[in-house]
Amino acid sequence: MGKENRTSLVIIIVLVVLIAVASGILVVTTIPERQANTTEAQTQQSVSEETVSGDELENVLNQQPMFVDGVKYYYASSSSQLQHDAMGATVYNNSDVQIKRFVIAFCAFDENGKPIRIKQPGEGGNGAYVRTVSYDLSTAGGDKKYIAPEESFENVVFYVTNDPQIVTIKACVKEYESVDGIMWYNSYYNAFKDNYSGKELMQ
Predict the structure, then answer these.
(1) I want to staple 86 with a disulfide (CB 3.0 to 4.6 A). Which of 4, 53, 157, 203 is the partner?
(2) What is the pTM (predicted TM-score) of this model?
(3) Structural contact between residues 169 and 71, judged by C-beta atoms closer than 8 angstroms
(4) CA dihedral 75, 150, 134, 195 (to 10 degrees)
(5) Alpha carbon 175 to chain centroid, angstroms
(6) What is the pLDDT of residue 190?
(7) Number of neighbouring beta carbons within 10 Å of residue 175
(8) CB-based contacts of 107, cutoff 8 Å, min separation 6
(9) 94 band by pLDDT with thresholds 50, 70 and 90
(10) Alpha carbon distance 170, 105 (integer Å)
(11) Using CA of residue 90, residue 94, residue 100, residue 104, what is the dihedral sign?
């Protein structure tokens, strides 16, 4: 092989290597850019959810796969089955799965719409503005092992002290698990807390 041919071959090899390196650099630099775009989209979605409030939030919560269909305050004096006052909620299975376990979040307010730190009878500390109660029908020992699609369940209670007196209750489903192990987490739970935890109700 002549000197000119060897020189041409070296030049070609160098060009191929440079092109390959350049291509590699382009691939590496596009990966973080995609990740950044994905993160930005997720952040925008999160901000959008967290800023939902008032009637708009209530409408969103009432269209979820499982939602609170009603709340009630039970006075111990009105029932021999209750040892203490209690907040109650009815949940509705709006999904197409059989729900065996679920978690409900409660917030409470006095007659003036001011937030109340919820405490259970005999509990130490100051309580909390948001309290959750978990129900697992599959291990509760009763005849009912799950909530079927388009079915309600109204025996959700959370015992509370009656000082200060709770007048208004806000509640939502935080999460649930189906008999098949399908988990659902409420993406608007943070919006629920942002609107009601420690916040005074708008009159």
Answers:
(1) 157
(2) 0.73
(3) yes
(4) -80
(5) 6
(6) 95
(7) 17
(8) 115, 118, 129, 130, 169, 170, 171, 192, 196, 197
(9) very high
(10) 8
(11) negative
